[in-house]
Amino acid sequence: MPPDILINMVRKMTPAQFKAAVNKAQRQQKQAIDNYNREARRHNAAVKKAVSDYNREVRAYNTKARAHNSKVENQRRRLNQEIRRLNSRPATATFVTYRASVETLARRYTETEQSLAGRTITPAGRDLVDRGSEEAANSAYLLNAMDGDGAAEDDPTEDELRGPSMQAELATFGEDLVDRWAGALFSLSPSNPDAARHFCTSAREVLITMIDSAAPDSAVTEADPACDRTDKGVPTRRAKVGFLLRRKGIDETPIEDLVEEDMDNVLGLFREFNNGTHGHAGRFTITQLSALRIRVESAIGFIHALCAT
């Protein structure tokens, strides 16, 4: 546009028009600044929220990790304590086979921890190893309780001893197992001379059914046609354990050895009672029956963790 025309246009703007133009420019500038500040505040708030959320997640993770590590350390201390109590007394003529199994399971857990030290394993594998310390501690505590060295101060009442438990874990395998476990618990009574034997018979069926349901013969042989088999041609329990571990992405021989040792321990316990070699008259105290229940409950939780997908 020619300069003379621009000059004429400027000359034609009245003071009121000029003031209005200035005010408009100022409003536009203020609006632009407000928009920028608003977007800056929104961005800063989003960054602050993201940092806050991250820090909250980190704190929650650290809290959970500390709680988990504390629980694991407590179980390890408890295992060492139970083994010391066991070794402080002369070996008795009762539960000889089971005592050997308890000692072997404790060693197997320690060896597993040592062999995996410094290595990265899956969370599922870590969970099973951590549960292994609880299994070993509960097996040692049971043996101590059977020898009269249990924690009587922690005894439940008779009603609590027979109360329901492990329902959520067993329900994943069917309500029949929930009912069967309830029947096993119902048999626990200091006045029942066959309490331990009846309990162990039912508990064994529960544990075996859990494994067989999660690892049916057909699935195990399809996954590994060359798997170990029994004399009857069906997959061995160890083959089923290996199948369940691989399904969880766990391919660690030490963990497989630990799981197998734990199964030997708890099933060997049942054999001790069912074969009548425990050397007791048949009646057990609430302390002893509670220790027996605790041992089997932890085995149910252990197998549930092994079978969970």
Automatic annotation (TrEMBL):
Residues 19-89 form a coiled coil. Pfam families: pP_pnuc_1 (PF18165). InterPro entries: pP_pnuc_1 (IPR040556). Residues 173-302 form the Predicted pPIWI-associating nuclease domain. Keywords: Coiled coil. This is Predicted pPIWI-associating nuclease domain-containing protein. It comes from Bogoriella caseilytica.
